[in-house]
Specification:
homodimer; 451 residues; mainly alpha; MgtE N-terminal fold; CBS-domain; Tetracycline Repressor, domain 2; 3 domains; 3-stranded mixed sheet; 23 helices; 66% helix; 6% strand
């Protein structure tokens, strides 16, 4: 029942296209879901994709475009005349249409819009383009079924027949009053199972969650996830219903947000995929590597200041990688727990102070265990007691410092409304590497003069 | 319209509870959504939560339990008699009921099941307990509305009225034949808008995606996300309909999976939250720190072998942090891109060989740029040409090695059906630290003998 894309399938399809066997090629793809066809486009050349695309019927062709990755779609549409693009846009849901058109330059947007015959659709798109992409307004579609609270079920059904043509999936019917203010929802289940002369007012569910158009996408995702909603109505400042958000768009928000945080903690600065070109992948990765490089140079400078001590006690250098690595690891652990708590809104009511105290507890426990292990190791295998005491003391100190720093920085960024995920990964690692080194050399200097 | 939990609210509530003001406390929570009440429980003591819980009506009390975190629920239910637990379980959807009961010991499971009056519910739960938690069977609920393909819409509506009582949300009606084999779906929209004497057969949507009960959760999530489904039917080996999965459960799967991958790349081994106790947080973090510690000891041993060289050219030690950090950063970048591609099923048809060649291109680009920078730096600021050439050559080599290793390891783990996310974070960092050090010292020995 479910399509699985194989190498053989692609080879066969490319063969048909190469030989201009339109009918055979079309037969392979005609029954596939738009999402599957988009996946196929991803595996073939853009010219081959265009060869297939003209054979699809208008609705499906438009849906395939929506399923493409943003940059693929841009390349695909670039050579098409605005009139053709307008025909696709006309067939899309308003939210998808606004997303596609929003990627164009303003000039191109106007040109495409001027070719859209359906003036209601064009108006909806213009409305939606005004909202921030990352807000409820940017996620919502204008297509929805609304009924007046004073209608009977019979009137309601009649009206729904008219409206439902434009709406793909109906999960709820929204009930409004004469001023278009959202009063509640009506589940289709209830509608099906209630006698038809009942007034809408009497079966309405008034306990409806709605969001304002400027609610950030992350909050929309959080609300729909928390309350297990499949659709969420959007209202304006006067509580008038202006659109609805469906769960599939929110799933995308949740996934993209998670991918972004994952890439940030791994030191990747833009949204990339393994199938992107080597050039794009390089550009996404080199900024953090530069920071790492400058961190390394700074570390070399610090060590230069301790050249005398390192010359006298060369064994001290042996444990530099250990200290640096532990500082980095502890820092990333601490910061990622905070970043996740902030992202999922599960910080609880502990104050920053309480968080730091708890983190101090964790760091102390970890620090004691690990320092004792390294103390034991050096006590047995090293002939220098100064080294033994330096490494274990420094390790404990570095663990405490790195965990405080890893906890503190994201919390502070969040206070100042800066995305705390920016502070994870290579930033925390690099700072902790350097600070760890500094702490180690200072402690070493002290103990080696003592013992 | 939407509840926001504040410190003031909690303080007021705790005040009422402390003074045994049941009515006042109940008034505060009675209109809240179960998810909100669960959030409140998270902020108050377990005894205070129990004080509130007994006042909730049965259905809501049961729903609140489902919304609690697994470990909180366990503590909450521990002191309750099996009979009371059975009353809650009886009111839940079968999938939630199975999840809750699945957390008990087998003995306790049997005891609770024996108290469930509704034998159909008890039977459904026992069925569901047989499935792996991380499979379609583990996600599905048994409650669904099925109609026979030979019925008319009128019969269908009559039957639905009977069945719908047990089903919270109806998105689709499933159509089966006389052998219970899934034939298709019927959208409520279509049902509402078609004349009632039509046969189901004629308006059925046969193009339905279904999964087998043993399909892994990740694949279920991938399918529902890709095809924008809000509900997915589950069938047995004979294509007989046995349950359905709803999108809200899949959103949880997607979120939990992302959180897990994030924690793994950050070096955290179990699912923890910032609100967990210091003890749990320590246990989740110390395993990777031990690996880092042993890596550090290994690094110290390797450097011990080069003690002579390091004594002669102490400046070489200065760039050890740089080399180690860059190896770690590059390795994590490479592995995270592969892990994400594997997780989102977007690997394309490039062979492992092609992936490695592209990664080689990225690494070469990054390597050339960064080595040139460090070459320039040392050329200007260092008086040793041997050092200048050693650091830049080693950096280039380490970047190439780390990116190959970071790409290769997750791909190999995936080939052997081991979760590739295990290879991210501290593992890749530690191995690359050590290998980087080794490469650096070898190259250094070579060049310092030459120049």
């Amino acid at each position: 029942m479910q399509f699985e894309l194989t190498k053989e399938f692609i080879d066969e399809l490319i063969g048909f296209i190469a030989n201009d066997q339109e009918t055979e090629a079309f037969k392979l793809i005609k029954d596939l879901h738009p999402a599957d066809i988009a996946e196929i486009y991803d595996e073939i050349d853009i010219e081959e994709a265009r060869f297939l695309h003209v054979m699809l019927d208008g609705e499906k062709a438009a849906d395939v475009l929506v399923e493409l990755e943003e940059d693929d779609r841009e390349r695909f549409l670039k050579v098409l005349p605005s009139q053709t693009i307008a025909e696709f846009i006309d067939k899309l849901d308003s939210d998808d249409a606004a997303d596609v058109i929003g990627e164009f330059s303003e000039e191109k947007q106007e040109e495409v819009l001027s070719f859209i015959d359906n003036l209601e659709q064009a108006g909806d798109i213009v409305d939606l383009l005004n909202y921030d992409e990352n807000s409820a307004g940017g996620l919502m579609a204008k297509e929805l079924i609304t009924v007046n609270e004073n209608w009977s079920i019979t009137t309601c059904l009649k009206e729904m027949r008219k409206q439902a043509e434009n709406v793909d999936e109906v999960y709820y019917v929204y009930v409004i009053d004469d001023n278009k203010v959202l009063k509640g929802t009506l589940s289709l289940k209830k509608l099906l199972l209630t006698p038809t002369n009942t007034k809408i007012k009497n079966i309405i569910n008034e306990d409806v969650t709605a969001v304002k158009a400027d609610t950030p996408s992350e909050e929309v995702a959080h609300i729909m996830d928390k309350y297990d909603l499949v659709a969420l109505p959007v209202v304006d400042a006067l509580n008038r219903l202006i659109g609805r958000i469906t769960i599939d768009d929110v799933v995308d928000v949740i996934r993209e947000e998670a991918e972004r945080d994952y890439q940030l903690v791994s030191g990747i600065t833009q949204d990339v995929e393994s199938t992107d070109s080597a050039w794009i992948l390089t550009r996404a990765r080199i900024p953090w590597l530069f920071i790492g490089l400058f961190g390394g140079i700074l570390a070399a400078l610090i060590m230069g200041n301790y050249e005398l001590e390192l010359g006298l006690f060369p064994q001290m250098a042996f444990f530099i990688p250990l200290i640096a690595a532990m500082g980095g690891n502890v820092g990333v652990q601490s910061s990622s727990i905070i970043v996740q708590a902030l992202a999922s809104n599960s910080m609880g009511f502990e104050s920053i102070g309480r968080k730091l105290i708890k983190e101090l507890g964790v760091a102390t426990l970890n620090g004691i265990v690990l320092s004792m292990v390294i103390f034991g190791y050096n006590f047995i295998f090293s002939d220098s007691f100064a080294l033994t005491i330096t490494v274990s003391t420094a390790l404990f100190t570095v663990i405490i410092f790195a965990s405080m720093f890893g906890t503190f920085v994201p919390l502070i960024l969040d206070k100042f409304k800066i995305d705390p995920a920016l502070a994870t990964g290579p930033f925390i690692t690099t700072v902790n590497d350097i600070m760890g080194l500094f702490i180690y050399l200072m402690i070493g200097k002290m103990f080696f003069t003592f013992f």
